[in-house]
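Much of our argument rests on the idea that a fold can be written as discrete symbols. The record that follows shows the chain in one-letter code together with its fold in token form.
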Amino acid sequence: MTEGQWAENVACDYLCAQGLQLVVRNYRCRHGEIDLVMRHQDILVFVEVRYRSYQKYGGSRESIVPRKRQRLLATAQYYLQTHPAARDCRCRFDVVLMGGQQHAPSLQWIADAFRG
């Protein structure tokens, strides 16, 4: 298992414990990939998981550059277009930032991270 897969598993478990339900992992299309698609009550949640074991080149928050954000938005739009049941759902983008070592990671969940 890669560090990225491990981080996605930890994030998914954490979000499920907070009341979200997993819809699909690693949704891919020509625009990019979304790590987790989840449901939180009546909201469809697109989740980006960012893990950095060290901060030398910036933390996990700094790794979400504008180009990455645009690709996430395009991928989510494509998901909505190709999944008719999801078209009328309210949506949001959450980010799970993780740092540190696998034996003692830090985790920060930012709900509705792209608003504002």
Residues 56-60 have pLDDT under 50 and may be disordered. The helical segments are 3-17, 66-82. The two ends are 35 Å apart (CA to CA).
